[in-house]
Amino acid sequence: MTTQSALSHLKVLDLSRVLAGPWCTQMLADLGADVIKVERPGAGDDTRHWGPPFLKDADGNDTTEATYFTACNRNKRAITLDMAQPEGQALIRQMAANSDILVENFKVGGLKQYGLDYESLKTINPRLIYCSVTGFGQTGPYAERAGYDLMIQAMSGLMSITGHADDQPGGGPMRMGVALVDILTGIYATSAILAAVEARHTTGEGQHIDMALLDVGMAVLANQAAGFLNTGKVPQRQGNTHPSLAPYQTFATLDGSMLLAIGNDGQFARFCEAACHTEWAADVRFASNTLRVQNREALVALMLPVTRTRSTADWTTLLEDKAVPCGPINDLAQAFADPQVQARGLILKQPLALIDKAQAATENIPNLAAVNTVASPLRLSATPPVVRRAPPTLGEHTDEVLAELGLMPADIEALRTRGVV
Predict the structure, then answer these.
(1) Number of domains observed in the structure of the chain
(2) Is the pLDDT of residue 104 over 90?
(3) Which of 100, 117, 182, 215 does the annotation list as catalytic?
(4) Are residues 312 and 357 in the same domain?
(5) pLDDT at residue 403, rounded to an integer
(6) CATH number at residue 321
(7) Which helix (H) or strand (E) holds 252?
(8) Which of 40, 124, 269, 299 is most open to solvent, judged by the fewest CB atoms within 10 Å of its CB?
(9) Strands 34-39 and 11-15
């Protein structure tokens, strides 16, 4: 039985590049939306070239296609189009007229010169939901600045609470291991778009969504922001410990390290019993979480000699049936090999149709055998995400999409000759 995708009725015009916008549109595509990604002829999305690492060809050799691009462009159709040319602008307006959603991440006002800004496009499609993703938003003194994830991690304060304390080895501000603000902005943008789709059912009209990386970077400070805003106390970096919980950190083991995440008094008591140190739970210094946070150094000093007596696997086995959160600190190879990750089917291997090697060389298209991506974590029982397409090669669907607009093959070839597509 064919399952109807949740968003199969929606058409999305994707004018975004790099990560935040494409992450949003990939989420919509995974849920069934028809997403058309527009890229620059001959160059494409910047992330196609952000390598190493690069995808391998069918013979195991590096191609010129960076793996970065594949992280956020699955399930899309890709066309190349030069929006600086009037004919390119006209084609985008034609697509926008038939789209439900448009996502772009140009600088503030960058598309107005082409007549592709929200005010221009809503005159031809009042139902269009137009999502702009920028570093600092459409308003404010920084609106015209370019914004990048790392810059926002620094400006928002995220780096001030990430990393070891200044007086510790390796201390100092630290960026997160992935561009998390970009990714979270993409997720927030998806939520906003779906809210706008819902609102359109009532109003019959679309709207403009103003997404800013800085706004998201501040919003996801979560409990750290709440603590500062209500006490005035500026939180500091403290490595892998938690400002409000203890013991909630990494601990050395016989063969490496483990993560122990004790969130309440019951878990602490069960850990103490399993570790054969029930006296810790009875100690007045550790009788509550608040007291354990206050006496963290004393508690950790008692625990470390004990955690070093067993391997990480032994601790995990010992505690897993006692409802005490504990686990290994995996690298990516270990994480993807984990039986739970395997059981959840989180690795997607998407085969690609191999093309003739001569054609690949002539048209500069990598002769890829397969692309691996991480599956969507959205698990809907009736309308789950569906894998329909691998991340597209540059301009892979140009002829197909333009034909749907009514262009004949000769028309498309003429546009290609003039460098429009």
Answers:
(1) 2
(2) yes
(3) 182
(4) no
(5) 96
(6) 3.30.1540.10
(7) strand 248-252
(8) 124
(9) parallel
